[in-house]
Amino acid sequence: MRIGEGAVPYQEAWEEQQRLHALRLADEIPDTVLLLEHPPVFTAGKRTKPEDLPLDDTPVVQVNRGGEGTWHGPGQLVGYPIVKLPEPMDVVAYVRRLEEALIRASADLGVATSRVEGRSGVWVLGRELPDAVPDPAKVIDIGKLTLRLGLPLGIDPRLAGPEYAASNAGQRGDDRKLAAIGVRVARGVTMHGFALNCNPDMTWFDRIIPCGIRDAGVGSLTTELGRDVPVAEAAPVVERRLAEVLAELPEPALAR
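Given the sequence above, the corresponding structure tokens read:
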């Protein structure tokens, strides 16, 4: 774990991920998780739109994870699990486990969070608006999903159900994304991971459209609780909860 003055430059962490990925693929190490902070950096996943990135000359690192653009920096706990997934491989189930670990950790720290249907990550739901009725002009029905216009179609139907809050079509105030998730699975082993906002300078997010989402906000443990929650406080809680949910994964077969 490297946080505070030990913050790890993004490129250094990426090279370490690749090294550990090769070792895990060869079964030379067990599942491993890097927990760290980065100096300020913007990264762009495969689905990032140019208009969602900073308008100034702030550097942007192109990465091979899923998802769109985001920011990493001081006050944010970043986790990179290097995990061999069991067969048959289920990437959605793996993402849900990461979400579950962060939902449990946030609750331990005093913040109630949720999933939102059709959207990855961990969310603080906006306040319900009295007598509000969802705007039919902002709703697309796809089976059990009710999505805001502008969201990509083809959403996995498992991203719904009782553990997912209905996507917001005007029936509540702005939802706030507390933790972002973007993963890559190469040859059955995971890379990239999650970012939990603890006490970052939230104005960094003003330079981009975080995760390409224009109809919601970004939150942190500090802004939600009204007290300072440093990374050093959140990290051991996340570490414990992450170990808990990843231990529930079936053991993968050894490489032959």
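The two ends are 32 Å apart (CA to CA). Try to locate this feature in the token string yourself.
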